[in-house]
Amino acid sequence: MTTFQFLWQVTMYRPFRYWINAVVWTLIYLAPIAPGLITKQFFDTLSGDSAVHYGVWGIIALLIGAAFARIALIYIGFITDIQFRFRIGMMLRRNLLRHILKQPGARAIPCSPGEAISHFRDDVDQTEEAASWSVDAFGMTCFAAVSSYILIKIDVQMTLLVFLPLVVVVTAAQMATSKLQKYRAASRESTSRVTGAISEMFSNVQAIQVAGAEERVIERFKHFNEERRRTMIKDRLMGEVLDSVFSNSVNIGTGLILLLAGHKMRAGAFSVGDFALFVYYLTFVTQFITNFGKFLTYFKQMSVALSRLTSLIQGAPARVLTKKSSLQLGTGGRSAEEEAEEADRNAQTAPLHQLDVSGLTYRFPDTGRGIADVRLSLKRGSFTVVTGTVGSGKTTLVRTLLGLLPKDGGTIVWNGKPVDDPSTFFVPGKSAYTAQVPRLYSDTLRNNILLGHPSDAGALKQALHAAVMEYDIDHLSNGLETVIGPRGVKLSGGQAQRTAAARMLVRDAELYVFDDLSSALDVETEQKLWERLFHERGEATCLVVSHRRTALAHADHIIVMKDGRVETEGSVEELLATSTTFQELWYGDERS
Ligand SMILES: Nc1ncnc2c1ncn2[C@@H]1O[C@H](COP(=O)(O)OP(=O)(O)OP(=O)(O)O)[C@@H](O)[C@H]1O
After folding, report:
1. Structure pTM?
2. Over the stretch 462-517, which tens digit does the pLDDT of each residue have?
3. N or C: which end of the chain has fewer CB within 10 A?
4. Are 556 and 567 members of one domain?
5. CA angle at residue 407 from 572 to 106, to 5 degrees?
6. Coil, helix or strand for 78?
7. 546 lines ligand 1 (CB under 6 A)
8. Residue 369 Cα, ligand 1 centroid: separation in angstroms?
9. 384 and 490: one domain?
10. CATH assignment at residue 308
C-alpha cells in the first residue's frame, strides 16, 4: 500500500465526518478574505477612494462581525477535527491490537514491548496528524487561490514581485526543516543516552565500586554529555534561524510592498486600501506556505509510520490497519466476521471427549530445532505426562498445541472437529495453561490469581487448596491482599509457581496444561500438589510436562520426547521395562 493509498483509506474510515471537517476548515481558511476586503474598504473610505460608503462605524461593525464569525467557525472546526481524528487513532490502535492478540504468543510482536508501545503511540499519532492536516492543506490552497485572484486583479506586477521572492524564501526555509528534524532526532537520541547512563549508574553503584570502574564510567558519561552538547547546539541554532526567517518574512514582505507601492500610489494606480489588503493577505500567504510544508512533513512522517506499523503486523497486508469496524469494546463492537468466529468457536465448546494431535511440527526459524511429527491422543479425564531430557521439545510441544507457537504442520482435532486457529481456540473455558516461568504482576496476590475473573469465594478457596497455598497465605503479611512486588519478586520460586497454578485452576477449563509446574517445589509440597490436582481436577483432562517422579507416578499415560520427536509412550511399568531414556529420567530423579 502506498502512503497516499494509506492516507485515503484512513480518511475514508468515516467519510462523512472527514468531509464535514474539510468543509468547516476550508471556511475557516477562507474567512480572512472578508476582513481583508473590509480593511481595504475602510482605508479607501478614509482616503475618499471608495465608491461605496458604509461609514467608519459600519466598517468596524463588519470587522467585528467577521471576527466573531471566524471564532465560531474555529470552535466548530475543533469539534469536527477532534471527532474525526480521534476516531482514526482509535481505529488504527484497535485494528493493531486485534491483529496482535490473534498472533501466537511467541510471535505476537517482532520487537520489545517498549518499542511496540512507541509504535502504538507515536506512529498512530503521526498518521492521525497527517490525516488531520490534509484538511488544512486543502483549505489553505483554496485561500491561496482566492486571495491570489483578488490581488492579481488589483495589480499583477505587484503580486508577482512581492509574493514570488517570499514564496522562494519561505519554501527554502521550509525545506530546511527536514535538516532540523534530523538534528532534533540526534539531540533526542543523545539525551536518552545521557539519561540511560544516569539510570545505569544509579542501579549499578555496587557493581561499579566492586569493579573499581568509577573513572571509566565517568569518562563514558562525559563522552555522552559532550555529544549531547554538540547535537543540542545544532538543533537550537537551526531552530532559531528558521524561526527568525518565518517570523520576519511578513516584515520583509511589507517592506517590499512599501518600496514598490510608493510610486504607484503617487501615480494614483494603487490606493491605501490596496496597500492594506496586500499587507493583510501577506500574513496568511506566509502561513499557507509554512503550513503546507508542515503537511508535507507529516505526510513524509506518515510514510515512515506506515512502514513501522506494517512491520508490527509482521507481513500481514496493510489493509488490516484500516479495516472498518466498530470502535466499541465488548460484544456490541464486534464485526459480523468476529461474531461468526465466536459462534464457530462456541460450537466446539462442548465438553472435551477426545483431543487428537497428529504430525504436529514446529521449528524455531533461527535454530531449526523444535518438534516434528508429534502424535498424541487425550481422552476425557485422562492425566498425561510429557517427559524427556532437557531440550527434547516438551515445552515446544505444549506451546505449539495451544497455538502459542504457530505450527508448521500437523492437525489438532477437538471432539472430531479440526481446530483451525489454535491460538484463538485454546482459551479459558476450553483450556488453561501454566507456563514454565510464571508471569506475575505488581499487585495483590488475589488480583494476580483472579486477573479480572469474576470473584467466587468458593472457587478461589478450592483453587488455593489444590495449588497447596493455604500455608503460604496464612504466613504472608496481608494474606491474599499482600502486594507481591514487580514480577512477583516478593514470592519464592515455588510460591510463584503455585500462584500461577491457582490462577489456572480458578478458571473452569476442559483441558489443563502444566509446564514443569513443580520444578521449584520441595518434595513434600510437590507430593501434595500432584495428589490434590489428581483428585480435585474433577472431569478435567490434564496434560503435564514434567520429569519428576511424583508427577510421573500419577500418569495414566506417559509420552517420552527425544530430539523433538516422540521416542516412546506407555505406562510407568511399560516404560521402565522398555525405555532407557525413561529409566534414566526415573532413576535420575531419585538421585537428584
Ligand atoms: N526461542 C527459541 N529459539 C530457538 N530455539 C529454541 C527456542 N526455544 C527452544 N529452542 C530449542 O528447541 C528445542 C526444544 O526446546 P524446549 O524448550 O521445547 O525443550 P524442553 O524439552 O522443554 O526443555 P526443558 O526441559 O529445558 O524445558 C531445544 O533444542 C531448544 O534449544
Report:
1. 0.64
2. 888 888 888 888 887 887 788 876 666 677 888 888 888 888 888 878 888 988 87
3. C
4. yes
5. 95
6. helix
7. no
8. 7
9. yes
10. 1.20.1560.10
